[in-house]
Batch of 2 targets.
Target 1
Amino acid sequence: IGRAIGCERRTFSMSPEIGYFCGKILSFWKNDVVITREEIAGLTANLLSTPAAPTAPTRFSDWLRENAGTLGRRYFSELARRR
């Protein structure tokens, strides 16, 4: 994704506790909920993927290429979206 939008970032591992702590800081800074303990538990339990075949009509790589110019340019608050 970073390469597609021209903003490569390094990735690194950290403990779930440190990740949650960093998420809390970002949540406070953005006045939003960035990540929850339940989401971290789901990610560490490998629940982000499924063995089933994709069902969407659009390939993610195609969508990414089409939207690369606007992707990641603005922050959208999940809490504000739900209000």
Target 2
Amino acid sequence: AMQQQAADTGHNVQDIGVYLQPIENGRAAHLEFSIPYCPDDTEECARVRELHRSAGEKMYSLGAVFTRAYGDWARMVCGRNAVQHSTAKMIKEIIDKNNIMNPGKLGL
């Protein structure tokens, strides 16, 4: 899925690094991608943002779980999983009674 999304957004698939770590006795896995880009190139930055968005959408639709979702991914996850979002809010209220840790950063 990442290779297809990368190709669709104009990235060289061979340049993307992959880190895969099996967890829970192989029942699940942690997966990360490293996408090299030049931060001074505005067009390349736009392509990376589009890849981040489109690949996240595709992987989420295939069953990926985003345990630390931020930005577009947080909006995607919280917007589609009300239970996860309300649980995250409840936990934050318990441990951050004064709302000083990343206020307004739960995706919605």
